[in-house]
Design goal:
This protein is α+β, with helices and mostly antiparallel strands. It has 3 domains: 3-54; 58-135, K homology (KH) domain (GMP Synthetase, Chain A, domain 3), CATH 3.30.300; 139-203, R3H-like domain (Ribosomal Protein S8, Chain: A, domain 1, 2-Layer Sandwich), CATH 3.30.1370. It has 6 helices and 9 strands. The chain has helices at residues 13-23, 58-72, 98-102, 107-123, 137-159, 170-179, and strands at 3-8, 30-39, 46-54, 77-85, 88-95, 129-134, 163-167, 186-191, 198-203. It has a 3-stranded antiparallel β-sheet with strand order 1-3-2, covered by helices on one side. A 3-stranded mixed β-sheet has the order 4-5-6. A hairpin with a 6-residue loop joins strand 2 (30-39) and strand 3. It is elongated and about 85 Å long.
Length: 206
Amino acid sequence: MKSIKFETKAINESTLKYAAEELKVNKDYIDLQIVEEKKSILGLNKTYIVEAKIKFDPLRDGIEYLKNILTSMEIEAVVEAKLEDERQIRFSIDASENPLLIGRNGKTLEAVQNLMKNYINLFTEDFYIVLVDIGGYKEQRKKQLEILATKTAKEVAKTKIAARLGKMNAYERRVIHTKLSDWRDVVTESEGEEPNRHVVIKPRHR
């Protein structure tokens, strides 16, 4: 988690406020620890070297944050989280209003994921990849994309003509790239500018 060290004459509310402003988080997330105590030559005055750390658990606090959002929307849901990699977290939501949270073509889901990514990385020093799935939508979407990737790659390998897929978000493009990464006959490239970025599947040898 993010942390800073600084020198102060006293440990009080002002110290906590200063640390919160420097770390750009609410003071409730700040933990202060005295690292060193300094005295003047005559021993009349003291100063402290303080380390301010962010007390934040990406999984626990991430779940709480998601639950608060859903509660404010008056949506009942079960929220779970797991660390899939050292720097990758997946949040799973199963709600009474799954279609509403997913949105058309997953747009609302993508917005929720971006919100969670920004929230988690606000508190952490090292960047986390944050994934959000709602009602298994992404897992189903992944299967559909993998089928599309395989079918299109076979056609490209046969005809030697490149194929451009429809616009996709970063997660969907990554599914395509990963699925075809070990194919010998085709290569994949992302082209275009957001939000119209897409994947092109090309023959490796014309």
